[in-house]
């Protein structure tokens, strides 16, 4: 009884079902080879391809937990790739390690500034997050085109290609980066009060401010954080393709990231989030894509499957739909977002 | 052969301003948009030869007729405080359905009906899920977008040309205006849609309920207004408008293509925002959205007249304009969010 309440049950079940389908279709699906001390295999591929989405989704989880949303991450991915590749291609030593490091530093610094900008619009000016980030979503790809001068800039720098395609201790570096960021965020929100504060802001920004939470700084910080995540994801994508494509790099990745967060059981109404759920969501999306390829279904139809999955998952998590589908008496509404509790009394002197 | 229809009578209804005394507050944003449009056009006219010719103005309508239709539907949705991300994908799906059914030998009328039906039903389904299962419009229409784009690929991965006689006739047809000017039949359809949109919003019970739901759904429900019907209804309208825009687009491009109209939902939302509609719902005018589309069209015209500007300035300029309008809206409407 209690297990069906856990919001992670359905995503995990869906992910397991997908993996099982793959196992039936190709029995060697789970095998992992070690070649030259490096790991290869379908599961490793899924993890590696999911890494950029997972990275952004972790940042997005925190943004959504504060009742926000960031639509501009796809544009930031494009900008990060554009800055890095343009700088490397235009430098006097396009193959040296220092050039790559400087270029990546520049990209992350610029994207940090963009995150500060998004956060400023949302937390200081008070514009709805979806609109505030829509501005950068629209203008961002134009900005990336401006940086690359409308060209697809290709680079060949061994240090830079490590970010997306390299191995460290036999494990793809992209997986390690996403894993470390995930673990760090999980640690910080679990072991410090930050997780609680983010939830408080998401439930009711005004009430939490009155209770002494610095809600403005928290909201601002999460937008900066997600922008940095997107920048690193952009580096991974550009490094993997060895090129910056201002038009197509990270196209629809904001939607995939939001999808991962929603599948993971985080409520878009804010105030309740699950990082583990997000990770499962991101893996699920990537596994779905891989499965479509593996089972020989035309890959173009992946979008149809994604649509069906989104609707199914949302319906399963919606209390209204559960009431219809599972006519069972409930003791407490499980997924209802807390609707604006009364502000706590100001602490008088 | 040309189609002879009534000339558009839009000029007379564009600006409900300059009444004696104070202009009602709800017209301010539309007046601001109109002023922006005039200012941009004035700048263009002073900088480039031939920018101010009447045909350039008419071409704004000709090249953006489908976007005007989309923006009208989007206005309804945004007025209730929702959002529809699926419109661009539905446009693409409509061109695919039109092209493939025509290739299969369907009569033009049957194709038109089929396309409009698919768009409307998709809108209806999204509306029902949004209202009855209380899932955020953002997510539901996102799924709708995935679904429509995916279905495009299911129909065909390649571009399909439209060779149907009636469609080609409409595509080549022009409506002559005095002075050697012309518009296309699509422009007339778009203006009719704008007219109907204005009528429905301002003269019918449905329209008033749209504003009421956008202001506060709870209050609207408590007042006994049919909030459910209106909330579902706006998505039906948006779905219908998207498929109609898809038909206009397929006539404009005479082909069906899966990657058509990528990002057009952003243009539609930007047009509505620039047109002065409040994104939180409850305030805005259809005519503003049309002016918003014309502003976007003027930016394009600017860039094509000025040979040195590159096309990516379009996106940057649109982003900046949206920013300015949203910030101004926010500053003017201080209060509880």
TrEMBL record, chain B:
GO terms for molecular function: transmembrane transporter activity. One of its GO terms (cellular component) is plasma membrane. The chain crosses the membrane at residues 27-46, 66-93, 105-132, 138-156, 177-201, 232-254, 266-292, 312-332. It is found in: Cell membrane. Pfam families: BPD_transp_2. Keywords: Cell membrane, Membrane, Transmembrane, Transmembrane helix. CDD domains: TM_PBP1_transp_AraH_like. It comes from the Bacteria. It is a multi-pass membrane protein. This is Sugar ABC transporter permease YjfF. It comes from Aeromicrobium fastidiosum.
